[in-house]
Amino acid sequence: xxxxxxxxxxxxxxxxxxxxxxxxxxxxxxxxxxxxxxxxxxxxxxxxxxxxxxxxxxxxxxxxxxxxxxxxxxxxxxxxxxxxxxxxxxxxxxxxxxxxx
Length: 101
Hints:
This protein is mainly α. It contains 3 helices and no strands. Helix 1 packs across helix 3 (74-97) and helix 2 (36-57) crosses helix 3. The radius of gyration is 16 Å and the shape is globular. The two termini are 18 Å apart. The mean pLDDT is 89.
């Protein structure tokens, strides 16, 4: 017997699935040989995306990406805000695309 998920449960699953992938990527790639180029591309996309989001959406000076061993920097806070926004947009798109199922 198949359990049917309620609309709020489906929406929550979709949001957290997207956010989890965005938070974790590109970590697993560095474990696979020959994928350094892909990891560098993803990190470059994050750098560009965070700088754009900071400047044009949050209206703050683009924070430099500083590796201090901690995720407690302005760059990481801006990245989290961007991930949340992308998560909401992706959840809406996923829900609209799946509404006929």
